[in-house]
Amino acid sequence: MSDPLTEFDKNEEIQQATIKSMDELVARIIMWHTNGMAQAEHMLTIPEGTEAEYPNHKGKPITIKLTGKVLQAFRFGIMTGIDAFMKLPIAYVEEDKEPANEPTTDTPKGE
Question: For each of the chain's 111 residues, which pLDDT tens digit applies?
Fold first, then answer.
């Protein structure tokens, strides 16, 4: 069986899709998380003076110039997000195909 994690290019943007197996679901979640963390880490390298456009509370775009304290606050927010979501609480582990033949400690009755 192929590893579902290798089926997705790391640079591929994962879109909403119909999931056909639990392995595919887990692989897609892990790749989504990996891509999101890479994007967040990239945001930390944005140079001073960069202009960022964000929608305000009414959806109207506003431009913010990332300098000085604004840049520090921007980076602090990104670092806080990375810290909160760095470790994904799941991991992909391929299941054993055959049950393990482990010894039991149960003694049959009458022995």
Answer: 444 444 444 445 556 678 888 888 888 888 999 999 999 999 999 999 999 998 999 999 999 999 999 999 999 999 999 999 988 887 767 776 555 555 555 555 555
Residue 105's Cβ-count burial label (10 Å; 0-12, 13-18, 19+) is exposed
Using DSSP, state whether 62 is helix, strand or coil.
strand
pTM passes above 0.85: no
68: tokens are 């000085």
| DSSP helix/strand/coil, 90 | coil
Cβ contacts of residue 54 below 8 Å, gap of 6+?
61, 62, 64
Instruction: Copy the structure tokens of residue 88.
Output: 């994904």
Residue 52's contacts (CB-CB under 8 Å, 6 or more residues apart) are 46, 63, 64, 66, 74
d(CA 71, CA 76): 8
